Amino acid sequence: MTESAVQNQREDLIKTILEDDQSALEEEEILHHLLKQYISKDSITEQDKSLTFAQRAADNLAKFAGSWTFIIAFFVILALWIMANSILLSKPFDIYPFILLNLILSCLASIQAPVIMMSQNRQEQKDRLRGINDYKINLKSEIIIEDIHLKLDSIINNQEDILKRLQQLESNTK
Q1: pTM, whole model, 2 decimals?
Q2: Over the Cα atoms of the chain, what is R_g?
Q3: Looking at residue 110, what is its pLDDT?
Q4: From CA 57, how far away is CA 137, in angstroms rounded?
Q5: Left if phi > 0, otherwise alpha if psi is -120 to 50, otherwise beta: which for 19?
Q6: What residues does each domain of the chain span?
Q7: Cis (ω within 30 of 0) for the bond into 92?
Q8: Do the Cβ atoms of 109 and 56 come closer than 8 Å?
Q9: 156 pLDDT tier (thresholds 50, 70, 90)
Q10: Fewest beta carbons within 10 Å, which of 13, 21, 134, 151?
Protein backbone atom coordinates (compact mmCIF):
# COMPACT_ATOMS: atom_id res chain seq x y z
CA MET A 1 0.00 0.00 0.00
CA THR A 2 1.44 3.38 -0.94
CA GLU A 3 2.15 6.10 1.57
CA SER A 4 -0.50 8.40 0.10
CA ALA A 5 -3.11 5.64 0.40
CA VAL A 6 -2.16 5.15 4.05
CA GLN A 7 -2.41 8.91 4.56
CA ASN A 8 -5.85 8.96 2.96
CA GLN A 9 -7.01 6.09 5.16
CA ARG A 10 -5.71 7.90 8.23
CA GLU A 11 -7.58 11.08 7.30
CA ASP A 12 -10.75 9.07 6.69
CA LEU A 13 -10.41 7.41 10.10
CA ILE A 14 -9.95 10.76 11.80
CA LYS A 15 -13.00 12.16 10.03
CA THR A 16 -14.96 9.10 11.12
CA ILE A 17 -13.87 9.56 14.70
CA LEU A 18 -14.70 13.23 14.77
CA GLU A 19 -17.87 12.70 12.72
CA ASP A 20 -17.07 15.90 10.87
CA ASP A 21 -17.61 16.68 7.19
CA GLN A 22 -15.03 19.45 7.02
CA SER A 23 -12.57 19.47 4.16
CA ALA A 24 -9.37 17.51 4.47
CA LEU A 25 -6.68 19.21 6.54
CA GLU A 26 -2.97 18.67 6.46
CA GLU A 27 -1.75 15.76 8.56
CA GLU A 28 -0.36 17.91 11.38
CA GLU A 29 -3.49 20.04 11.50
CA ILE A 30 -5.63 16.92 11.63
CA LEU A 31 -3.58 15.42 14.45
CA HIS A 32 -3.62 18.66 16.43
CA HIS A 33 -7.36 18.88 15.87
CA LEU A 34 -7.70 15.26 16.99
CA LEU A 35 -5.62 15.94 20.11
CA LYS A 36 -7.78 18.93 21.03
CA GLN A 37 -11.03 17.04 20.43
CA TYR A 38 -12.31 15.12 23.44
CA ILE A 39 -13.89 11.86 22.38
CA SER A 40 -14.64 10.27 25.72
CA LYS A 41 -18.12 10.88 27.08
CA ASP A 42 -19.84 9.98 30.29
CA SER A 43 -22.53 8.10 28.39
CA ILE A 44 -24.03 6.61 31.54
CA THR A 45 -24.68 10.00 33.14
CA GLU A 46 -26.05 11.35 29.85
CA GLN A 47 -28.44 8.43 29.55
CA ASP A 48 -29.49 8.62 33.21
CA LYS A 49 -30.53 12.26 32.75
CA SER A 50 -33.06 11.32 30.08
CA LEU A 51 -34.79 8.48 31.95
CA THR A 52 -38.54 8.60 32.37
CA PHE A 53 -40.27 8.05 35.70
CA ALA A 54 -41.17 4.47 34.71
CA GLN A 55 -37.58 3.70 33.71
CA ARG A 56 -36.21 5.07 36.99
CA ALA A 57 -38.85 3.07 38.88
CA ALA A 58 -37.87 -0.11 37.00
CA ASP A 59 -34.19 0.48 37.79
CA ASN A 60 -34.93 1.09 41.46
CA LEU A 61 -37.15 -1.99 41.67
CA ALA A 62 -34.48 -4.13 40.01
CA LYS A 63 -31.88 -2.70 42.37
CA PHE A 64 -34.07 -3.45 45.40
CA ALA A 65 -35.17 -6.89 44.18
CA GLY A 66 -31.53 -7.90 43.76
CA SER A 67 -30.53 -6.91 47.29
CA TRP A 68 -30.16 -8.82 50.52
CA THR A 69 -32.69 -6.45 52.08
CA PHE A 70 -35.36 -7.75 49.70
CA ILE A 71 -34.41 -11.38 50.22
CA ILE A 72 -34.44 -11.11 54.02
CA ALA A 73 -37.69 -9.10 54.05
CA PHE A 74 -39.25 -11.59 51.64
CA PHE A 75 -38.38 -14.56 53.87
CA VAL A 76 -39.59 -12.74 57.00
CA ILE A 77 -42.95 -11.96 55.34
CA LEU A 78 -43.28 -15.57 54.14
CA ALA A 79 -42.45 -16.91 57.59
CA LEU A 80 -44.94 -14.54 59.27
CA TRP A 81 -47.65 -15.46 56.75
CA ILE A 82 -47.14 -19.18 57.27
CA MET A 83 -46.92 -18.87 61.07
CA ALA A 84 -50.00 -16.64 61.24
CA ASN A 85 -52.06 -18.97 59.08
CA SER A 86 -50.77 -22.17 60.67
CA ILE A 87 -50.32 -21.41 64.35
CA LEU A 88 -51.33 -17.93 65.52
CA LEU A 89 -54.77 -17.40 64.02
CA SER A 90 -57.67 -19.47 65.30
CA LYS A 91 -59.52 -18.89 62.04
CA PRO A 92 -56.81 -18.55 59.31
CA PHE A 93 -57.63 -16.60 56.14
CA ASP A 94 -55.26 -18.74 54.00
CA ILE A 95 -55.20 -22.34 55.17
CA TYR A 96 -52.60 -24.89 54.12
CA PRO A 97 -51.52 -25.27 51.15
CA PHE A 98 -51.58 -21.41 51.19
CA ILE A 99 -53.34 -20.85 47.87
CA LEU A 100 -53.60 -17.08 48.40
CA LEU A 101 -49.88 -16.88 49.18
CA ASN A 102 -49.10 -18.84 46.00
CA LEU A 103 -51.30 -16.46 44.00
CA ILE A 104 -49.54 -13.41 45.46
CA LEU A 105 -46.10 -14.93 44.78
CA SER A 106 -47.07 -15.76 41.20
CA CYS A 107 -48.33 -12.22 40.62
CA LEU A 108 -45.17 -10.79 42.15
CA ALA A 109 -42.98 -12.93 39.90
CA SER A 110 -45.02 -12.13 36.79
CA ILE A 111 -44.62 -8.39 37.40
CA GLN A 112 -41.08 -8.45 38.73
CA ALA A 113 -39.51 -10.42 35.85
CA PRO A 114 -40.42 -7.99 33.02
CA VAL A 115 -39.45 -4.97 35.14
CA ILE A 116 -36.05 -6.49 35.84
CA MET A 117 -35.65 -7.33 32.13
CA MET A 118 -36.44 -3.69 31.23
CA SER A 119 -33.71 -2.59 33.61
CA GLN A 120 -31.29 -5.13 32.11
CA ASN A 121 -32.08 -3.88 28.59
CA ARG A 122 -31.25 -0.35 29.68
CA GLN A 123 -28.01 -1.61 31.23
CA GLU A 124 -27.22 -3.28 27.89
CA GLN A 125 -27.74 0.07 26.15
CA LYS A 126 -25.34 1.69 28.61
CA ASP A 127 -22.78 -1.05 27.93
CA ARG A 128 -23.19 -0.58 24.17
CA LEU A 129 -22.61 3.19 24.50
CA ARG A 130 -19.59 2.52 26.70
CA GLY A 131 -18.23 0.09 24.07
CA ILE A 132 -18.67 2.63 21.26
CA ASN A 133 -16.94 5.26 23.40
CA ASP A 134 -14.07 2.87 24.18
CA TYR A 135 -13.72 2.03 20.48
CA LYS A 136 -13.43 5.71 19.53
CA ILE A 137 -10.87 6.35 22.26
CA ASN A 138 -8.83 3.31 21.21
CA LEU A 139 -8.98 4.36 17.57
CA LYS A 140 -7.85 7.89 18.44
CA SER A 141 -4.99 6.47 20.53
CA GLU A 142 -3.97 4.14 17.71
CA ILE A 143 -3.79 6.99 15.22
CA ILE A 144 -1.78 9.18 17.59
CA ILE A 145 0.59 6.34 18.50
CA GLU A 146 1.10 5.53 14.82
CA ASP A 147 1.92 9.17 14.13
CA ILE A 148 4.37 9.28 17.03
CA HIS A 149 5.99 6.10 15.76
CA LEU A 150 6.36 7.56 12.26
CA LYS A 151 7.86 10.75 13.71
CA LEU A 152 10.30 8.73 15.82
CA ASP A 153 11.34 6.75 12.74
CA SER A 154 11.89 10.02 10.91
CA ILE A 155 13.97 11.39 13.80
CA ILE A 156 16.06 8.23 13.92
CA ASN A 157 16.65 8.38 10.16
CA ASN A 158 17.61 12.06 10.41
CA GLN A 159 20.02 11.29 13.25
CA GLU A 160 21.60 8.50 11.22
CA ASP A 161 22.01 10.89 8.27
CA ILE A 162 23.54 13.53 10.53
CA LEU A 163 25.88 10.94 12.03
CA LYS A 164 27.01 9.82 8.55
CA ARG A 165 27.64 13.43 7.52
CA LEU A 166 29.61 14.09 10.68
CA GLN A 167 31.67 10.99 10.09
CA GLN A 168 32.31 12.08 6.49
CA LEU A 169 33.32 15.58 7.67
CA GLU A 170 35.67 14.10 10.27
CA SER A 171 37.24 11.75 7.74
CA ASN A 172 37.66 14.65 5.22
CA THR A 173 39.32 16.91 7.79
CA LYS A 174 41.92 14.26 8.75
Answers
A1: 0.54
A2: 33
A3: 93
A4: 33
A5: left
A6: 1-37, 38-173
A7: no
A8: no
A9: very high
A10: 21
